[in-house]
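Handout, page 2. Input:
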Amino acid sequence: MDVICELMKLKPENVKDYIDLHNNTWPELVKELRKAGFEELYIYILDNLVMVIMKCEDFKSSMVKAENSVAFMKWDAIVREWLISDEHFFHTQDVLLDLEPIWRLDSFDKDGFLK
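Output:
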């Protein structure tokens, strides 16, 4: 099971737009995300810093499926206009940063030892 954390920064003037869009999520997007294999998806925000946590069996495969769906393409086009790169913070010009996990509780057995 893959659990991916993604970070992005919004243009400060688009934070409300981003929240409003998610408060009015399109049903077809939800269906396409589930069909692509996403089992859980959480979005957290602090000022204009957004953290997205996604859980799926195979992240790369699920992303390919999602990226080829009509609703996701439309949604992504809207959201990407609101993102900014922050090379100082992310150390890259990319507007989306996927973080690599370094520790997971489910890697340990009930006695606290690494499986």
